[in-house]
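User: Predict DUF1330 domain-containing protein's structure from this.
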Amino acid sequence: MPAYMIARVKVHDPEGYEAYKTKASAAIEAHGGRYLARGGALEVLEGEDSGARLVIVEFADVETARAFYNSDAYQEAVKIRQPVSEGNFIVVEGL
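Assistant:
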């Protein structure tokens, strides 16, 4: 069953964030993930907008999404992301 990693990220240093994007993309690809949305135009239909980027990545299943997130390669990317942004990451099981 597919799983979706959904991230909302407020970027404080766009230049510093570029290095994160490169490393994160490689780790996602290595785990068979694919971007469904990545910081594109966003329209809030109800509620408040946090002003954060929205990223949605599809994985084969929840276990693969967890393996990606906990991988050494992605954790190296996290070390780059955290000083230049604030994020909220969740994984949800698809239908």
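The mean pLDDT is 97.
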